[in-house]
């Protein structure tokens, strides 16, 4: 039997656990800095390629999201250091709601951040860029010939959380997996993805924690050879919650439920690795990157904002910030939305979408391209806001409209948002995938 072609791959990880007092993000009613560390948080990097043909880097982070400005800083640093092109660098966040605030949704809290707390957010964010640069360079330094393969399993703990609007709403239970081994078959790294919010822990657990994503990484690594690294990204899970989750009567159960959910991911990884279902990849990934303008449907009434700003709580914080932007004529009418596509030759297209993308996007793209040829990641490269589909926009609710408050956006999107994104993805895809 002919052996699969080798691809040059490196992998590394670096700790990004906060060491100073900082508010955890994702829930609006956490009023104080974290009380302890249950999980260490990590940044991990996969590097493909060589100095002659160029490098591609995929970074995963145990954070709620990655602000676009941080992604741009990392890209500039790596372009200067190793001449890595921006389209070949992607950063995927786990969307854990038990990680530090990094500046994406500072108006999301009922209790506004104090000047000292804002300073802590700034310090943490500033420290992230050099760490992501370092883990990327470490991964490049470990590049060696490897066998790369991929396949898909299935895990069932994600549920559509919009049942009050659409009972039995769509889900995507696929769990794609990328396996990297040395030429003799010893596993060096695995990357998996799942379309589900990392919200098993609720706000009553005010501890640093990777949620089900962190548990999955820990348990996968326990099952792999010493030194192997497990990476987890998140798919189009903006309207998907882990189930069970957020036990308000017994918050300690959240920790156990996250462990059980992580075990289900780790178990499916073990099954796939031991199976004959994985397909070999023979080419290192090459990327393309572009931005598409997504327009907002309207602008808020300044007088209504002023009335709300005189109150208290999360919407009051939002209204204050919006009024300041309107007074300076800085209210955005649109966002510039990044879309990235990596192709591993003709065998696999990996799509990276920014922000909190609802499940309709992955289901539509898989139907169009073929579910055995495409892998869709969300929460990648930027954290602008929720990205609803046309269906979700018409249904209304949190993911369509009210979530925009936390992201300091003026309104919901216009109804062409889905078509603009899908059309741009199609434009970026290689001809073989259209």
TrEMBL record:
<dbReference type="InterPro" id="IPR006823">
    <property type="entry name" value="Ceramidase_alk"/>
</dbReference>
<keyword id="KW-0378">Hydrolase</keyword>
<protein>
    <recommendedName>
        <fullName>Neutral ceramidase</fullName>
        <ecNumber>3.5.1.23</ecNumber>
    </recommendedName>
</protein>
<dbReference type="Pfam" id="PF04734">
    <property type="entry name" value="Ceramidase_alk"/>
</dbReference>
<comment type="similarity">
    <text>Belongs to the neutral ceramidase family.</text>
</comment>
<feature type="domain" description="Neutral/alkaline non-lysosomal ceramidase N-terminal">
    <location>
        <begin position="8"/>
        <end position="225"/>
    </location>
</feature>
<dbReference type="InterPro" id="IPR031329">
    <property type="entry name" value="NEUT/ALK_ceramidase_N"/>
</dbReference>
<keyword id="KW-0746">Sphingolipid metabolism</keyword>
<keyword id="KW-0443">Lipid metabolism</keyword>
